[in-house]
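Bit of a strange request maybe. I'm writing a small parser for structure token strings and I need a real example to test against, not something I typed by hand. Could someone generate the tokens for this chain?
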Amino acid sequence: MRTPVVLLPALGETRDDWTKIAPTLAQDHDVHALDLRGHGQAAWEPPYTFARMRDDVIRTLDDLGLDELDLVGHSLGGAVACHVAAAQPDRIRRLVLEDVGALRPRVPQSPDRPPGPLLFDWDMVLSVRRQLDSPDPTWRDDLALIAAPTLVLAGGPDSPVPDETIDELVNRVPDARRVTIPVGHLIHRAAPQAWLDAVVPFLAQT
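Reply from user aminoacidic:
Good idea to test on real output. This should exercise your parser:
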């Protein structure tokens, strides 16, 4: 039986971001790459909260009839994936988090809007940034509710994600382990084969 794999992209990215690794995953899995709210073909409708993005993903899983699946999330997609796995622990068989740390308060910075048309809603970016700057502390507490074996991929010293927050996430998730691929934040794009070498055997485990 082919276990479905659902892929959630990072802030500002769409489901097309997974094109380098999706064909290999599709050899053994039914792959579903999703757009998060405010991105690509998903609804561009506020409020752009983590909780609403979680509910969007769960609704899509229901629509697709996916009762048991492996869930992969990069950055923002990983934060949302944690929400999904905590809310429905019996549904997620295995969880892969790419360069995601436990959310901690941080000093706000004002991002500059890129020029030209965007594949995402800029208001969504501002809303997500506010939640990342002042995260709901229950997000970290809920990591303890994740039942799935979890693989956390860290991007190493060139990643903007503080290394200690990745260690905190690994320590808070009951069954998690960490693998560092030191290529920065965009691991699956910068080193797709190394990403696959870590993820494919993990997903193959029963």
